[in-house]
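for the recovery benchmark. C-alpha cells below, seq after
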C-alpha cells in the first residue's frame, strides 16, 4: 500500500529498515530483490513519510540520494508514488519479463473494472491460460466482447466467466437460444448455468415428492396431470433464477439513452440484481431494480399459472373425449384468481428471496470458497437454494 499512500507515518517509518528480502539461492531472484524491489519499497516508504510530515527513515537516505533527491526536500510531496513500481511492473517471479503465449492478451486497466491491480493481473493470467488451453486467441471470441474488453468496459474476469460458462454444449445451446441477455449473464457469473441446473433439480425432486405423497397409487394413471404441474413448476423455477441473476452489459452506463423502447430507456442503466457490485449503482437504481423485477416476475408468475391451468384443462378435455365415463373429482377453481395470487407471491416473496440468494452467491461465496474446488461453492449453493425453497413453501401458505 505504499504506492497508493494508504499508510500511516509510523508504518512508513517502520517499513524501510524492517523490509529486507532474505538471500535467495537463485541469482536472478536475489538480484531482483536487492537491486530493484528493495530500493523501490524504501523510496516509496520515504515519500509516504514525507507526505505525513514524518521523519524520513534513515535507510531511505541512500536510495533517495541515488535519485539525486534530498531526503528533506519537501518537493517530494508533489511526486507520484506510482513511479516506484514501474521497474517491477513487467517482471515475473524469476526477474524475467513475461512473454506472451498462445491466446495471450493484455491491456491497461482502468478504474471502471472494479478490481485492484493484483486482482486484475491474476484475472488476466487466468483468462490467457484458458484461451491458450483451448488454442484460441481473444480475437476468436464474439467481436462485441472483444470490443468491450479493449475499451475497458469489461475485465478479464468477465471474459473468463464467459469462457467457463460456455465450455459445455448446454451452455452454448443456451447462448444460441437466448442471445445477448444470456451472454450478459454468462459474463457476470461463470456458474450461471449450474445455478439453473441446481434450481431445476431441487424443483423436480420437490414436485415429484409432493405429487407422489398426494396421488400415491394413482400417480401413473394421472401422469398427464403430474407432467403439467411439473412443467409449470420448472418454468417458474427457471425464470426465478434467470431474471434476478446478475448481468454484465457490453455498453457503458448512460450510452445509447435515446435508442430502444421507452421501457429499454428506463431500465437500461439498472442492475439486474439488487446486490450487483460490478458498478457503482446508486441506492435509487437498486430500489428501482427491486420494483422492476417485482413487476416483471409478477407478470411471469401470472403467465406460468395460466399456462398450468391450460395444460390441466387440456388433459381433462382429452380424458372426457376418450373416456365417456371419466368424471373429474377435484373442484374447479377460478383460474384468474389463482393466477393473480400466484403472481403476487412470485413478485413479492420470491423476488426478495431470490435477490438475496443471488447477492450471497455472487458477493459472499467467492470470499468463502474462492480458493477451494468449485464443488465447494456448488454444494453451498445447493444448500442455500434448498433452504430458500423451504422458506418459500412456508410463505406460500399465507397466500
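predicted aa per position
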Amino acid at each position: 500500500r505504499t504506492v497508493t499512500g494508504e499508510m500511516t507515518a509510523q508504518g512508513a517509518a517502520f517499513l524501510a529498515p524492517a523490509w529486507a528480502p532474505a538471500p535467495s539461492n537463485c541469482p536472478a531472484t536475489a538480484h531482483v530483490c536487492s537491486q530493484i524491489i528493495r530500493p523501490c519499497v524504501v523510496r516509496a516508504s520515504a515519500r509516504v513519510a514525507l507526505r505525513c510530515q514524518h521523519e524520513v527513515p534513515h535507510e531511505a537516505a541512500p536510495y533517495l540520494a541515488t535519485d539525486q533527491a534530498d531526503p528533506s526536500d519537501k518537493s517530494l510531496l508533489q511526486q507520484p508514488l506510482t513511479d516506484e513500481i514501474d521497474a517491477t511492473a513487467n517482471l515475473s517471479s524469476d526477474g524475467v519479463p513475461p512473454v506472451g503465449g498462445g491466446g495471450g492478451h493484455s491491456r491497461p486497466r482502468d478504474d471502471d473494472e472494479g478490481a485492484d491491480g493484483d486482482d486484475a493481473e491474476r484475472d488476466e493470467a487466468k483468462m490467457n491460460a484458458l484461451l491458450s488451453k483451448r488454442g484460441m486467441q481473444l480475437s476468436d471470441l464474439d467481436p462485441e466482447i472483444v470490443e468491450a474488453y479493449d475499451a475497458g468496459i469489461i475485465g478479464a474476469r468477465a471474459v473468463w466467466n464467459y469462457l467457463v460458462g460456455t465450455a459445455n454444449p448446454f451452455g452454448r445451446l443456451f447462448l444460441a437460444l437466448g442471445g445477448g441477455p444470456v451472454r450478459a449473464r454468462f459474463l457476470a457469473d461463470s456458474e450461471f448455468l449450474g445455478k439453473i441446473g441446481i434450481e431445476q433439480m431441487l424443483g423436480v425432486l420437490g414436485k415429484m415428492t409432493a405429487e407422489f405423497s398426494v396421488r400415491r397409487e394413482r400417480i401413473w394413471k394421472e401422469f398427464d396431470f403430474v407432467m403439467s404441474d411439473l412443467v409449470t413448476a420448472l418454468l417458474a423455477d427457471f425464470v426465478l433464477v434467470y431474471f434476478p441473476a446478475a448481468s454484465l452489459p457490453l455498453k457503458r452506463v448512460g450510452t445509447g439513452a435515446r435508442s430502444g423502447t421507452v421501457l429499454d430507456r428506463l431500465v437500461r442503466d439498472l442492475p439486474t440484481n439488487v446486490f450487483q457490485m460490478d458498478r457503482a449503482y446508486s441506492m435509487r437504481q437498486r430500489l428501482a431494480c427491486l420494483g422492476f423485477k417485482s413487476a416483471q416476475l409478477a407478470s411471469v408468475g401470472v403467465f406460468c399459472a395460466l399456462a398450468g391451468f391450460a395444460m390441466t384443462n387440456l388433459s381433462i378435455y382429452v380424458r372426457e373425449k376418450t373416456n365417456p365415463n371419466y368424471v373429474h373429482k377435484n373442484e374447479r377453481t377460478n383460474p384468474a384468481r389463482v393466477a393473480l395470487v400466484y403472481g403476487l407471491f412470485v413478485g413479492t416473496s420470491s423476488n426478495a428471496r431470490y435477490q438475496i440468494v443471488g447477492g450471497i452467491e455472487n458477493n459472499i461465496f467467492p470470499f468463502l470458497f474462492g480458493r477451494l474446488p468449485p464443488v465447494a461453492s456448488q454444494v453451498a449453493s445447493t444448500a442455500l437454494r434448498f433452504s430458500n425453497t423451504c422458506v418459500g413453501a412456508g410463505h406460500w401458505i399465507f397466500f
